[in-house]
Design brief:
Blueprint (H helix, E strand, L loop, with lengths): L2 H14 L6 E4 L10 H8 L5 E5 L1 E2 L5 E2 L5 H12 L2 E2 L5 E7 L2 E8 L10 E2 L3 H5 L1 E4 L2 E4 L2 H11 L19 H14 L9 H7 L3 E2 L2 E2 L1 H7 L12 E5 L17 E5 L3 H14 L3 E5 L5 E5 L3 H14 L11 E5 L3 E7 L21 H9 L9 H11 L6 E5 L2 E7 L7 E5 L2 E6 L2 E3 L2 H11 L4 E2 H8 L3 H14 L3 E3 L11 E4 L8
Parallel strand pairs: 1-2, 13-17
Antiparallel strand pairs: 2-7, 3-4, 5-8, 6-7, 9-10, 11-12, 13-14, 15-16, 17-18, 18-20, 19-20, 21-22, 22-23, 24-26, 25-26
Organism: Eisenbergiella tayi
Protein name: AAA family ATPase
Pfam family, one: HATPase_c_4
Length: 502
């Protein structure tokens, strides 16, 4: 940087009275700080790099105290940089302000393939740091592994699973896959056995099932990996810990297991079932129901989490999580971005694939295009639905996607001019009685839970507990299976007494 830029940076620090993600303050009024390797490591290990600014004193409200000796300071900082692996090469700038000198050392971020940069005196495990806000934190074992995995091209998706057997694969699914391979990949359709195809495609290794083989074709993959599934919850509020009217923490709570395909379909169905419905009546009186999130975008988010999550031994105990709040849905998977890509570049450049064998298998099965179209599809679907852009973030080795719905945050009942009002989503009933009359009219023929939820336009929990339950207790609604109230085949119909109610 130029001297003028350095002075602007000094004024910024003095104004905000703090350090930043890319700025570390060191006094150096009486000598060179003896421990710089934590900042040298953390700045080198982030794409943006960082700047160590000498000559300001944090204890003196970031006032300029100057450096003890410009030349000696640069020499000793450079000596400490040589103790890093790989060696750090700083760029120094000097400026004078109020008769005192300040010095900056710009630390460039290194290529992902060279990370983590660490202090040789402490070793890779103890000498690797990551920048968190204004502090330098030691990298944990998993964070170090993620860099090693990329540099060494560790393929966790094709590691052999001890104890697994191909006899426990779903035979019909496996045969469908082999037929698809031979149809789509002509060079694998002649003079090659089925066992050889399984080896070449990463489904087996020396006859033993790989992780990809188990996750795609296994009869029950969670027998080997109990936590490699999905946990899905619906929270009655906007933050984890919020509770509903009956102090319930979750409106719905489900663990979704099975193969990749089974988990994908189960998770999408969970979101769809627990989504609020936006009802639009066109000019001809026809009703059009739309879920609060575009399901195509939801599917891509969950599919990306299943395909691109980290499947190393370090993450076997961590499932994918789906959290539905009143105002958003969050999908989180273990494993940050893989390779040379940042959050800002998602959907703009072709990323490297963490699990290429798994992605290839699911492409042949028709679950994914494997053309790096997932993120653009999510973005386009949210735009088409007039919803906010999807939010992507990486923190503590986890990748999170947030989809916001732009719907009212809470359900509420209020009184206006003495009349009880009930509003929800884009559907408005002017009185609770009007809503119930419309529902009873709709239930002249037996209706399923899903049909009723779609008609009313509320969540599953609110519809069944706050609307249907009182009508059933008053005798206005009957059940087709009264002895099995929770049956999936249960339907609801308007009782005769309802026709004569006030």
């Amino acid at each position: 940087m130029q001297a003028e830029e350095l002075l602007q940076l000094v004024n910024k620090v003095k104004h905000y009275q703090c350090e930043f993600q890319t700025i570390e303050i060191k006094s150096a009024g009486k000598g060179c700080p003896t421990r710089l390797y934590d900042s040298l490591s953390s700045f080198s290990n982030q794409d943006s790099g960082g700047i160590i600014l000498f000559g300001l004193d944090e204890k003196e409200h970031f006032n300029i105290v100057g450096v003890y000796d410009i030349q000696d300071l640069q020499h000793k900082v450079a000596e400490q940089c040589k103790q890093m692996e790989p060696e750090v090469r700083p760029l120094f700038t000097v400026a004078e302000l109020d008769g005192k000198f300040v010095v900056s050392a710009e630390i460039p971020g290194v290529d992902v393939a060279e990370r983590p940069v660490f202090y040789k005196g402490a070793g890779r495990q103890r000498g690797s740091f990551v920048r968190v806000g204004e502090s330098d934190e030691p990298m944990n074992e998993y964070e170090i592994y993620t860099y090693d995995a990329f540099r060494r091209r560790i393929r966790d998706d094709i590691r052999v699973i001890e104890g697994a057997k191909t006899s426990l694969f779903q035979e019909d699914l496996l045969q469908s896959y082999l037929a698809a391979v031979k149809s789509e990949r002509e060079n694998l359709s002649h003079n090659i056995t089925d066992m050889e195809i399984l080896e070449l495609m990463g489904i087996t290794s020396n006859g033993c099932p790989t992780l990809s083989g188990v996750l795609v074709f296994g009869k029950y993959p969670q027998a080997y990996f109990p936590q490699l599934g999905i946990t899905a919850v619906v929270v009655p509020g906007t933050e984890m810990g919020d509770t509903g009217s009956d102090d319930e923490r979750f409106i719905s709570n489900k663990r979704i297991n099975g193969t990749i395909s089974e988990m994908l379909h189960g998770a999408v169905e969970f979101v769809k079932r627990n989504s609020r419905i936006k009802t639009v009546i066109d000019e001809d009186g026809n009703r059009n129901d739309k879920p609060e999130f575009p399901m195509k975008a939801v599917r891509e988010v969950i599919l990306n989490a299943l395909i691109h999550r980290d499947y190393s031994i370090h993450t076997e105990g961590t499932p994918i999580t789906i959290c539905m709040y009143n105002d958003r849905i969050e999908v989180t998977n273990k494993g940050g971005l893989y390779g040379r890509i940042s959050v800002d570049l998602l959907g703009k450049v072709r990323p490297e694939t963490r699990n290429p064998a798994l992605a290839n298998i699911l492409e042949i099965l028709g679950e994914t295009e494997n053309r790096y179209s997932g993120i653009p599809t999510i973005q386009k679907e949210m735009m088409k639905a007039n919803l906010p852009k999807p939010e992507f973030s990486v923190r503590n080795g986890e990748f999170k996607v947030i989809l916001r719905n732009n719907l009212p945050i809470v359900y509420y009942e209020e009184f206006i001019d003495g009349q009880e009002m009930n509003r929800k989503s884009d559907r408005i009933f002017h009185r609770v009685g009007e809503r119930d009359n419309a529902l009873l009219e709709y239930c002249k023929i037996p209706r399923s839970r899903e049909e009723i939820i779609g008609f009313v336009g509320f969540s599953r929990y609110y519809t069944m507990n706050k609307i249907m339950k009182p009508l059933i207790e008053k005798g206005y609604i009957n059940m087709t299976l009264p002895d099995k109230p929770k049956s999936s085949k249960q339907k609801y119909y308007a009782a005769e007494i309802a026709k004569n109610r006030e």
